């Protein structure tokens, strides 16, 4: 198939392009490089533009007949979404609507959407399944939920076939070491600790050590980036036989605490890492772990790298390589 990967120069998008190419698909990347990296586009042709560049997109869709579109192009920093909600509603919602309008005009009806566990808000259960109430607590989560509801409506009105994949904590890097997680600023725990271990001047802290967990720190579900990409690939196949809108959680179904992540990093890099401890941050849930049985059953998806040590090891291999 010929696949348009929107946001294909970013962390998960670049891994997706590599996997699509390895399965024989033709890849075209659309990315404005605001957070992605030109050098990460090693699989497929890059069209440098934003989704707001309607003329460029119209010309691209007129030239290329796409079989499906994958969307990884959202702004995704929770704090920034609170400070600048209009930017998030414009990019994550309005510009996605524009993309969907062009898809409809050119009769492209397969769409795989990168969503988030942030659509659920504060958890009311230790294992979160797809029936958990959707009550996002920040603009980022709300923009993702709005797009999901748009996709569901388009599935009814215009026979769009769409899958929304709700990630928990994406982590790790491709085993080749060629691509990995390179955000600026970096907000994710594992790459921040690894960058500190690699000698970068970066502030890392443990926020809260008195939570009702075995070691007092928060627990999160970390899922290997290439396992996420496998789910996207399987979602494409799923849409061939399953019309309508579908949503799936993607996680390992087991959590690791902040201290366990730090321990795993110390084991991988072979030395002690001193990280200061601070009071809790307001709004941090105690435990966020996915119930992903729906994806395992319907997408036939199974994580290949579920243990935190292996995930950290893959990321460390990337951090030891020259960057983009």
Largest sheet: 7 strands, parallel
CATH level 3 topology of the largest domain = Rossmann fold
* Topology, number of strands: 15
Helix percent band = 25-40%
Q: What is the CATH architecture term of the largest domain?
A: 3-Layer(aba) Sandwich
In percent, how much strand structure appears in the residues?
15-25%
By CATH, the superfamily of the largest domain comes out as: NAD(P)-binding Rossmann-like Domain
Alpha-carbon distance between the termini? 29 Å
Q: Any idea of the CATH class of the largest domain?
A: Alpha Beta
User: In one word, what is the shape?
Assistant: globular
- Summing up helix and strand content along with how strands pair, one would put the structural category as alpha/beta
Uncertain segments of ≥5 residues (pLDDT<50)? none
Question: Quick check: average pLDDT?
Answer: 94
* String of helices and strands: EHEEHEHHEEHEEHEEEHEEHEEHH
What Rg, in angstroms, do the CA atoms define?
A: 19 Å
Strand order of the largest sheet: 3-2-1-4-5-7-12
In total, the number of domains comes to 2
- Continuous helix count: 10
Essential attributes:
324 residues; UDP-galactose 4-epimerase, domain 1; 2 domains; seven-stranded parallel β-sheet; 10 helices; 15 strands; globular
What secondary-structure arrangement, pairings included, does this model have?
Elements: E1 2-6, H1 11-22, E2 26-31, E3 45-48, H2 54-63, E4 68-71, H3 78-83, H4 85-105, E5 110-116, E6 127-128, H5 139-158, E7 161-167, E8 169-171, H6 189-197, E9 206-207, E10 219-220, E11 222-224, H7 225-241, E12 245-250, E13 256-257, H8 258-269, E14 277-278, E15 287-290, H9 293-298, H10 308-319
Helix pairs in contact: 1-7, 2-4, 4-5, 6-8, 6-10, 8-10
